[in-house]
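Hey forum,

I'm writing up a methods section and want to include a predicted complex as supplementary material. The small molecule is fe (ii) ion. I've pasted the protein sequence and the SMILES. Can someone with a working setup run it? I'll credit the forum in the acknowledgements.
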Amino acid sequence: MIHVETFYDETTGTGSYVIHDKSALRAAIIDPVLHFDVSSGAVSTTLADKQLAYLHSNNLHLDYICDTHAHADHLSAAAYLKQKTTAQTVISQGIGEVQQRFSAQFNKPVVNDLSALYDILVKDGDSLYLGDERLLVMATPGHTSDSVSYIAGNNIFVGDTLFMPDVGTARCDFPGGDAAQLYRSILRIHELDDNTVIWVCHDYPPDNRPVKLHTTVGNSRRKNIHVNQNMNENDFIRVRTRRDATLATPKLLYPSLQVNLWGALLPEAEDNGNRYIKIPLTTKGVF
Ligand SMILES: [Fe+2]
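Reply by user p_vandermeer:
Happy to help. Structure tokens for the complex are below, copy them as they are.
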């Protein structure tokens, strides 16, 4: 039996999960968060440390640190957690393509041997095991080209493939995003058993609704405002594209990408001992 423990980062509205097999006491962390304050440059590990304390107090052995995709709104704490444990980091093999896409923008080299940055690169249909419990990988591209979901017992961890039914879906306008692909990925999720619990990576609740990080496949299929059973692919693409045109650049876009696409490692220290995050400037027509 799989137990799911939710950890919520209020600053970025991120849901991060510690899941474990109750008999074997083997655990995985899904979408860990490293706090980063863009104004001060302060990095902190508060949420990841809470997860480590939870593992310790429940006698759990951490086997895997999984990311669902190349997050563009928060930094992953995967490298930090790896350094503190014997767990292996897990991400989609599609991360290489995303890294290549952004490498010129950050003037950071493409790392061809991704095993230098991540321990396990997964693809659709791959399985990992927590004791006897299977963690099945389902490729769910669309929000990003490398997005995967993880199925464990009666649960699916969908990253940003779906949000709560009253919020809908995540944007598809980042380079490599594709609304048609996202629609088809969601159809695959909606084909799972109605009672399957969907755990999302973010919630941006409408006014007065408390944060909620899980729903069911049945609820999502019937009620999701962007992609319910009454809407076809063209309806979805229209709604999604119109909404994407209104969205601002995420506050942590550049910090997130230049860390998360290179093994969730912070940039190397320069010769003065400091590490720096780069922001590529758009200067066309100004200078
Ligand atoms: Fe995302």
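Some notes you might quote in the supplement: The mean pLDDT is 96. The two ends are 60 Å apart (CA to CA).
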